[in-house]
Each structure stands twice: as C-alpha cells, then as structure tokens.
Amino acid sequence: MTSAAEQQGARARAPRADAPVVNGTALPVPAAWPGSSTPLGARFRVGPDGVAGTNFALWAAGAEAVRLCLFDEQGRETRIPLTELTHEIWHGFVPGVLPGQRYGYRVDGRWDPWTGARWNPAKLLLDPYARAVDGEFGLPPEVYGHVRDWPDQQVADTVRDDRDSAPHVPKGVVVHDDDDWSDDHRPKTPWADSVIYELHVRGFTRLHPGIPAELRGTYAGLAHPAAVEHLVNLGVTAVELLPVHQFAHEDHLLKRGLRNYWGYNSIGYFAPHAAYAASGTTGQQVGEFKRMVRALHAAGIEVVLDVVYNHTAEAGELGPTLSLKGIDNRGYYRLQDDARRFADYTGCGNTLHVVRPHVLRLITDSLRYWVTEMGVDGFRFDLAAALARSMHDVDMLSPFLAVIAQDPVLRRVKLIAEPWDVGSGGYQVGAFPPLWTEWNDHYRDAVRDFWRGALPDVRDLGYRLSGSSDLYAWGGRRPYASVNFITAHDGYTLRDLVSYQAKHNEANGENNRDGAGDNRSWNCGAEGETADEDVRALRRRQLRNLLTTLLLSTGVPMLVAGDELGRTQRGNNNAYCQDNEISWLDWTLLDDPDWRPLFDLTSRLIRLRHRHPVLRRRAFFSGRAHSADGLRDLAWFTAQGEEMTEGDWYAPAATLGMYLSGRDIPGRDERGAPVLDDSFLTVLHAGDRPAQFLLPGPPWAERYEVLVDTSREDQEEAPGAVHGAGTTITVPARTVLLLKVAG
Q1: Could you give the CA distance from residue 280 to residue 290 in angstroms, rounded to a whole number?
Q2: How many angstroms separate the Cα of 134 from the Cα of each of 97, 168, 170?
C-alpha cells in the first residue's frame, strides 16, 4: 500500500491545464454543444445552423467526468468537458472539428481496484469507436494506470500512477464517412463453393518482387495487380486476413526487441491497423483499406477478417491502461469474485464481458461497420467460445449468438468460429448453431495422423473426408459447416510439418517453451533442412498428398499463404513475434524447380474442385442406393476392391478407396434442373511400400481415368492413364490417386 503523502506527490505530477499554453498564455477552451448520444464514437457532420463539426459520444457508465482531448500538429492538448449525459453516454458536438483531428479521452472516477474501479484521469484513453488511429503503442511506465515499478509487486496494481500518458500513446482520428460502395460488387460466393486462403497483409506482400517497394507490407500492396494475380491464378475465392484491427505490442516482446506480428492483441475494433497503410495514418488508412477490398472484389475474391473480440491489449490487472480499462473497467471486462482480478478465458489476461448490453453493442456495431462501411464479407472469430459464454459456461443460447442470428446484416455474411477457448468447458467443436462454420481440428489431426502412419484405423478419416457428418449433421447444418485445414497461422507450415519432429522456437526468446509440443508431424527421416535428395523428394510427395487430400475432401478447404510454395518457418511453430523472413513469404520459391510443381498441383486441384459439384456438396452423403443398380452416392473400398465392412473400419489400414457418385447429388441448379456430375474414385495409400488396388467394377464403373497421381513430380498435366474396371493397379508408396469414372 502507498501512503497518502506518496499518492499526493504522484498526483502533483499530473497535468492540470484544460487549455493549451502558448508563450505563457492559455488559449480559450472551445465549448461543446449538447450534440447527440448516438451514434457512438466521433462522427463528422453538419450541426445546428449549418455549422460543420464533430459529434463525440462515449459510453462510460460509472465515470464522474469525461474530458474530450484534442491534439494539434505540435501535440498540444485542448481539453473540453463533455457535460451531457444520456443513458450512460457522455456526448457533445464541437464546432469546427474536422476530419483528420486527433483526439482521446480522459475519464475521471473512483480509484478503488479492490472493487474493480480503475479510473485515472492522467491516462489518455483511445476511443473504442475510433475509425482511425495515429501513432503506435509503446509501453513506458506512464501508460499504466498503476505504478508499474512499485517495489512490492503484490500490490502494485493498487497504487495509482498519476503521470500523464498522452505523449506516449496514439490518438484517435476523426474520419469522414463519405463512401456508399455503389461501385463495388461483392462476389457473394456460396459457402460450398468457397476456398479460403489465410494470409497476413504484411507477410504476404513484404518480399513480393512485383509490388513496388513503397507498397510492400501494406493494404495497397495486397491490392496491387501482382498480389491479386497470384490469388487469381491459384483459384482461391476468399482471403482470410490475420487481424487488421488496430493492435498493440506486448511489453514482454518489446523488452526482447520483438513485436506482435500476428496481431491478436486488439485495441481498436473500428480502426484498420495503421502500420499496414502506405498512404498515411491520419485517416488515409481507411480509404486505403477500402480500395484493397474493392480490388479483391473486382477479382472475384471475398475478404474475411480474423477478429479478436474475446480480449484486448490491456491484459490483466498488471497490464496497461489504454482504453476500456480506464473508461469503465467493471463495465467492459469480466472480473473474478475478487474484483481486483480479471477473469481470463483467453490466456491473454482479460476477457470482454459480452453478456453486458453495451459490450455486445460495441462488438456488433464494429462488425456491422466492417460489413457496411468497409466492405468485408465475413469474419473468423478468434476463441469464439469465449464470446459464447453467458455468466461462466459456454452457452449456445448466449446473447452474442442470439444477436448475430437475428441481425439483418451479420446473419448474411460468412461467420467462422474458432470453436474453443482456454477456460473450463471451452472446447466446442461441432456445437455452434446453424449460420456458423467452424475450424475443424478433428480434420487436421486425422489427416496428419494418416499420412504419418499414426492412425489406429480409418474410422475417423472416413468422417473427415466426407464432411464430418458426425459433428455437423444436426440442426440443419451442412457439410460446409466444416472448415477443413491441415495447417493454420498457428503451428507449422505444411513444409515444416514434414520436415521437423520437434519445434524450434528459439528465436522467440522463450527457451523453446512456447508453442504446441504435440504437432503430429514427421520429418521423413532427417530433422530440418537436408541435402539428402531421397528425404527431400519424400517430403515434396507428402506435401502433395496433404494438399490433394485437403482439396478433395467435402467441406470448405482452408490453405495458408505460402503452403502452395513450400514456405518454411525453419521449424518455428509459434511465429507470432517474428516480423521478419521467418514469417514473410519467400516468393523465389515460385520459380524454384523443386517447389513450382506444388503450386501447379494446388491450382489444378482448385480448378478441378470448382468444375465438379460432387466435390462441393451442399448436403451430407446418405450412403444409400438411390436406384435399382445399387449405386450409392458414397462408397468405401478396401485395397481388394471390396466395399468396406464394419470390421474393416476398425482394422489398421494404410489404404482407403473413396467413391463419390456424380449421379446422386441432392438439390437442383438455379434453373431447377437436377445437378449431375462425373463420378470419382480417390485412392489414398499412406504405406511406405507400393500397394495393389483392385478397381471396383459395375455398377461403379467400366473404366477409370487417372487425373492426379501424387507420386509424380511433374504436376502440370494430368497423367491420363486409363484402366479397366476390375483390374488391379499398383499404387506407389505414399500416394493419392484421383480417378474419374470414364464409363
């Protein structure tokens, strides 16, 4: 505990003036007109008598006073009291405040951490509704509401620090919303037809030789024709951008000379991250982001944002005071029974209290803003289970999910859940309601295990290849509820998955303790990069197997940027803090004869998927015959060409045949006609020796044409071999064959 005298001395250091001082003279403080309590945030408009200005509105229920702080180009601060209070919202209209104006808030109230009250007017706070942010968050002691270096760290968070934080924190920027999107055409790709490509705006563009140097690492770089051309040539239908909300870097990273690269540390839910803008940070980043979205839409590519509404960059009680913590700590965050402590279902120190109406409003207002005013097409929700918690437990009838389900804007866009958090009962794969799709880690694990020879049987693999009906065939959900992935930003790249047995995260400065220890990887006989050509060839084959499996599976495939090029992170499976060549795409791989064939195969498989509706089913397979000849929509075969029995599913197996009938696709096309397609037999063989496979005869087929053979290095053209039904073919070791029924 600090003494009263010590607290008094700390407060004496806080700035007192409400007006800027020039040459010793205080300038007049502009008055705020009453304005409006809606909408929240800073909105430029024409006010009474045709006077242009900006309306400011801030929800701060428990505050005793709120001051709007305006900053000029020299950083001088003008404080304007907001005296109007309507339904817990402080508001005022300030004439003459135009777009480009930098601002923040100082919020006064009780300092009583034992009850969760952490108001501190010495701390300049970012508007939660700021549309743009100018400047970066450093974390010197001044930005903490408490005395960070207090000798007794057990009580440090209870000692208020009254030093001014304004010189050390970014400011919000007033933005003019003048875009009606009338010239934009959203692709509106149906879920079943989607192929998602997860990428990092900076990492994807930072080393691209076709993008001008001044645009690399930016939204403008991603909008450049050279970047868009790669996406179009690959054939993906949507990019899923790692977080682009304004975020901050953690103190422990800054101390090690590192930065938060992934961006899962949001502090501004309406603002595009300013560091990714080439055009400027005083509002220009908003227009640049919109132009990027338009460029991608023009190429037929949707934009999905990875969003982090489960926690903020303010961490726990020992974290900085940047925004919500200083506006109303008890109102925005979940607290423990000991209100001095934060409830943490995210592993990041805090959890937003989504059950509270104003917090739910913040999130839904943000989501609608990105759809209606920024043009995005959907969202992937980080740790979505944390958002679905009611008071404590995950609840699929929670306010958040209920609001999304009935919202006329949000229920029409793509919604992807990361269906877990780190709290008790947080693992919820398969549990989210209709409208939602989910990252399916069951798919990831089963496919990894099959190709490394670690599956005890093929029961789980069968479910994963055919749409995971065991998880999603309820409540009207469809196969595309499963977002199938083998790799994601978090974990190994695809190349590292077949090159490393153990993680190598030393560059993160955490003594290799961070990152998952169980990766279901196999290094193919050597750890890391090797000159052994046999090992290198096997790894390339395994990559072809993994990508082919992913793109032939029922559900929505998700690729990670660079996996189609053989990108490596040198064994780092947690590169969240590596803003360097470890994380950036190496575009020279596209011209490397070892790796170019991987891109060719990937793009060819995506084109094949787009052409054949049997690979993009909108309904689950029935497994039943729909005609007298006994042909079913889905059938499974052993290497002996016999349909699998229940005992076969429980037996160890390295070889599996999957038959998809194009004759029995449910539904009709846009004109009401039946959907008909070719039929296919996929043979997956994970054994380390060649296998004999008997091709099924009638009614399944008369002949089979080989379209894909992953044992081949050259993947530019289909193999073209034709085999008669009832014949035995040799399947090379560790190979996928895709055969089209030819008669």
Answers
A1: 14
A2: 17, 12, 5
d(Cα 147, Cα 155) in Å, to the nearest integer? 10
- For tokens 């990508």, name the residue: 547
Distance CA 519, CA 493 (A): 11
Check pLDDT > 70 for residue 27: no
Cα-Cα-Cα-Cα dihedral sign, residues 527, 533, 538, 541: positive
Residue closest to 274 by CA, chosen among 135, 426, 87: 135
First to last CA, the chain: 84
Q: Which residue has the tokens 């590192």?
A: 258
**Separation of CA 437 from chain center:** 13
734: pLDDT strictly greater than 60: yes
What count of other Cβ atoms lies within 10 Å of the Cβ of residue 321? 24
The DSSP call for residue 28 is: P
Report which secondary-structure segment, H or E, holds 605: helix 596-611
Q: pLDDT, tens digit, for every residue of 122-173?
A: 999 999 999 999 998 889 999 999 999 999 999 999 999 999 999 999 999 9
Q: Which residues contact 222 (CB under 8 A, 6 or more apart)?
A: 201, 204, 205, 228, 239, 292, 296
> Which segment of 328-337, 390-399, 435-444 scores lowest on mean pLDDT?
390-399
User: Could you give the residue numbers annotated as active site?
Assistant: 382, 418
> What was the pLDDT predicted at 14?
42
Residue 630: pLDDT band with limits 50, 70, 90: confident
Give whole-number Cα distances, 161 to 140, 150, 208, 303, 422, in Å: 12, 10, 46, 42, 32
What residue has token string 């109102």?
331
**Calpha distance 44→51 (Å, rounded):** 11
Helices and strands counted in the chain (H then E): 17, 31
Nearest C-alpha neighbor of 639 from the set 701, 708, 687: 687
What residues contact residue 40 under an 8 Å CB cut-off, 6+ apart?
Answer: 57, 58, 59, 89, 128, 129, 361, 365
553: its two tokens: 């599976």
Q: How many CB atoms lie within 10 A of CB 89?
A: 19
CB 468 within 8 A of CB 445: no
**313 near 388, Cβ under 8 Å?**
no
Dihedral angle sign, alpha carbons of residues 105, 319, 75, 41: negative
**Beta strands in 39-177, from DSSP E residues, in sequence order:** 41-46, 52-59, 65-71, 77-82, 84-86, 89-95, 102-108, 111-112, 117-118, 132-134, 171-173
User: What is the DSSP pairing of strand 556-560 with strand 634-637?
Assistant: unpaired
Kindly state the helix (H) or strand (E) to which residue 649 belongs, with its residue range. Answer: helix 646-650
Average pLDDT, the chain: 94
The DSSP code for 126 is -
Q: Which of 84, 65, 68 lies closest to 19 in space, CA to CA?
A: 68
As a whole number of angstroms, the distance between CA 469 and CA 482 comes to 9
- Two structure tokens written together for 16: 């007192």
- Please compute, for residue 122, the number of CA atoms within 13 A of its CA located in the half-sphere on the CB side: 22
- Reduce the DSSP state of residue 304 to 3 states and report it: strand
Per-residue model confidence (pLDDT) at position 666: 84
- Of the pLDDT bands very low, low, confident and very high (cuts 50, 70, 90), residue 466 is very high
Measured N-to-C along each axis, helices 357-372 and 399-406 cross at an angle, to the nearest 10 degrees, of: 40
Helix 324-332 / helix 357-372 crossing angle, nearest 10 deg: 120
252 by DSSP, 3-state: which? helix
Gap between the Cα atoms of 285 and 244, Å rounded: 11
Residue 589 CA: distances (Å) to CA of 346, 497, 501, 513, 547? 36, 17, 23, 30, 17
Determine the Cα–Cα distance for residues 223 and 288; give it in Å rounded to an integer: 9
Asked if 260 and 192 count as a contact pair (C-beta separation under 8 A), the reply is no
pLDDT band at residue 49 using 50, 70 and 90 as cut-offs:
confident
Amino acid at 483: V
Is 414:408 a contact under the CB 8 Å cutoff? no
User: Helix-strand-coil percent breakdown of the chain, rounded to 5?
Assistant: 25, 20, 50
